[in-house]
Amino acid sequence: MPNPFSKLFWRDGSPRPDLVAAPGTPPAEAPAATAEKPKRGRADHLKDFRFPEGVSGNPGGRPKNRSTKAVLNELLEMLDSQGITARERLAEVVLAKALKGNIRFVRELYDRADGRPKQAVDLDGNITIRVEYADSHADTPEAPPGPAEDPVGPETV
User: pTM of the full predicted structure?
Assistant: First the structure.
């Protein structure tokens, strides 16, 4: 393990004058507690290149991008050399695959043409909540602390 004091001395063993005070000199005084610390965070050397306060570096704001849906709709409405849109070509492909018996495309056609069927959710049933406590007090003859037993049965919500 290196000696922690090795940086205080030159290789010949003499003390470094820039790090170690000479014998007989008074120790350097600590800076006053009221002294103001230098500000950190902003580079003062870039002060000339900053925007003045209250002036934006981007007065137009962030450029407005078109939504993916708008771009996709524009591409789907483009005509090919035969005057058919990409949307019509895709519909032909989906229809052809559905007619060949591919059930995924059959389902897609029905979902697009008639709308996806509503999902029925049954909310009329009773829900039983049962709480069981771990038997952490097996070595004691008394019952573990917990809610009193309900003589009627479990609660239904």
Answer: 0.35
